[in-house]
Design a protein that fits this description.
This is S49 family peptidase. With about 325 residues, the protein is of the alpha/beta class. The protein has a domain of about 180 residues: 2-enoyl-CoA Hydratase, Chain A, domain 1 (Alpha-Beta Complex). It has nine helices and eight strands.
Length: about 325
């Protein structure tokens, strides 16, 4: 009988057993960390949902509480801050909505537009101007005062000129009754680089504002006519709004686009007096309590935007796309 030879089984050494034990311990630790992380994310999301729910629940109650503490009468305050343009905080939609709410409130004794703006779209400014005049005609007993803080220029002054009266600080910048349109021309740069511009249009003047093509005299003259027409509309609105309060309507530089200090604007008739929103409410309106009617984002929207920005930043960091930051 032949015996089959078998190689002796190799017994595990102490080192192998130690490594396997260590491996199992590490895997168990990793799994536990994953488990803890999942639960952590779950509870954070739960807390976030709870906070959002509380914010949505108590925001209306806070508004009710504020309205309950208001006096029998007050002065409405509406902020016009920043560039006047569509989708901005100082858009016509926001300003007009604020104005309508203020004029329709029976407790409002007068309305103050507090302006700090360099101007902006003539279209948006024109919408607000027309609405102010309409609301003043509907509510003749409710006066509207424009108060310029740092700056009330161009389209911002366009809006202010529709008010019953305009006030400013002696150092405020007022006026800039003009129209501008600016751009760049890159024709010489392209020639130096050897780049050829190819534009295909249907219509002789369709590309007349193209910065990569030479200007044409007839197109420049046409564009100047557009600006002059808008300027005439601006001047007509200011004259209509200010009326005889403009001391010298034929002043050679009054409508030239120059900006004046409040102290200089007063004798020109661009403003009616010096003062702030609080002093006008106290001394002119006779109702010092100011209630803000400015259309604002809800706390929920502000929180959501901040949260979205924070999440996007973290996500970009984890994915390796972190842009420059200022510290």
């Amino acid at each position: 009988m032949s015996d089959e030879w078998k190689a002796p089984e190799k017994s595990e050494s102490g080192d192998d057993k130690s490594w396997k034990l260590l491996e199992k311990t590490l895997l168990a630790s990793v799994q536990e960390q994953r488990r803890s992380r999942r639960w952590g994310i779950f509870f954070k999301l739960l807390t976030f949902v709870y906070l959002l729910a509380m914010l949505a629940l108590f925001s209306p109650l806070m508004d009710v509480e504020k309205s309950a503490t208001r006096g029998s009468h007050y002065t409405a305050l509406i902020e016009v801050r920043g560039v006047i343009a569509d989708k901005e905080s100082a858009s016509a939609d926001n300003i007009v909505s604020s104005l309508r709410s203020a004029f329709e409130d029976p407790k409002v004794k007068a309305v103050i537009l507090r302006i700090n703006s360099p101007g902006g779209s003539p279209v948006q400014s024109g919408y607000v101007y027309d609405e102010i005049r309409r609301l003043r005609a509907l509510h003749p007993d409710t006066k509207l005062y424009a108060v310029i803080s740092d700056l009330g220029a161009s389209g911002a002054y366009y809006i202010a000129s529709a008010a019953d009266q305009i006030y400013a600080d002696k150092a405020s910048l007022v006026g800039s009754i003009g129209v501008t349109a600016a751009g760049y021309g890159f024709v010489g740069t392209m020639e130096k680089l050897g780049v050829e511009r190819r534009t295909y249009t249907s219509g002789e003047h369709k590309a007349f504002l193209d910065p990569f093509q030479p200007q044409k005299a007839d197109e420049t003259q046409f564009w100047q006519g557009v600006l002059d027409t808008t300027h005439r509309q601006f001047i007509a609105s200011v004259k209509q709004g200010r009326g005889d309060r403009l001391k010298d309507k034929d002043h050679p530089e009054l409508f030239s686009g120059l900006v004046w200090s409040g102290e200089q604007a007063l004798p020109l008739g661009l403003i009616d007096g010096l003062g702030s929103a609080s002093s006008v409410a106290r001394d002119v309106v006779g109702e010092k309590e100011l209630v803000d009617f400015t259309v604002q984002e809800s706390p929920f929207d502000r929180f959501s935007k901040k949260l979205g920005a924070s999440v996007a930043e973290k996500l970009a960091m984890y994915m390796g796309f972190q842009g420059p930051t200022l510290r």
